[in-house]
Amino acid sequence: MKKLFLDDIRIPKDCANGLVPTHLNKMYWDGDWDIVRSYNEFVDWINTNGLPDFISFDHDLADVHYTMDFSKNSDNQGTEKTGYDCAKWLGNYCIDNQNNLPNYIVHSQNPVGKLNIQGYLDNVRKFLNK
């Protein structure tokens, strides 16, 4: 099984400590993951290796995402791509190539980002299964 782990800092074993449902902990300990740290690495990995069987998504992929003040209405929200951008690219890739969406989980600690990724990919899956 090909598994892809998207996170700028953590390793898969870090997710076995409360970031994912308990029944998935074993999967994060098995050590058989390819790790990508950015949007570009994510896209390059899939373009090189094809779709994985499983993807674990983080949302915040750069320091700028941890320090932004979202309470202010400003345009300085950073240009670094997030896990949500990766999810959107993946959805388009699957639709354009008529592929099923891989199984996935979102291990992000960003609650809004996590819901955005999950909601988007759930909608892509519904569209592909029509």
Shape: globular
Strand order of the largest sheet: 2-1-3-4
How many structural domains are formed by the residues?
A: 1
Secondary structure: helix percent: 40-55%
* Percent of residues in β-strands: 5-15%
Question: How many E-type strands?
Answer: 4
Count of separate DSSP helical elements: 5
Question: What is the string of SSEs from the N terminus onward?
Answer: EHEHEHHEH
Which structural category do the helix and sheet elements fall into?
Answer: alpha/beta
Q: Averaged pLDDT, please?
A: 86
CATH topology: Rossmann fold
Question: What's this, in brief?
Answer:
The chain is of the alpha/beta class and 130 residues long.
What does this structure look like?
Strands 2-1-3-4 form a 4-stranded parallel sheet, with helices on one face. With 130 residues, it is of the alpha/beta class. Mean pLDDT is 86; it is low at 65-76. 41% of the residues lie in helices and 12% in strands. The radius of gyration is 15 Å and the shape is globular. It starts with a strand and ends with a helix. It has a single domain (3-128), classed as Rossmann fold. The chain has 5 helices and 4 strands, in the order E-H-E-H-E-H-H-E-H.
Layout of strands and helices, then pairs:
Layout: E1 3-6, H1 25-29, E2 34-36, H2 39-49, E3 54-57, H3 63-67, H4 83-96, E4 103-106, H5 111-128
Parallel strand pairs: 1-2, 1-3, 3-4
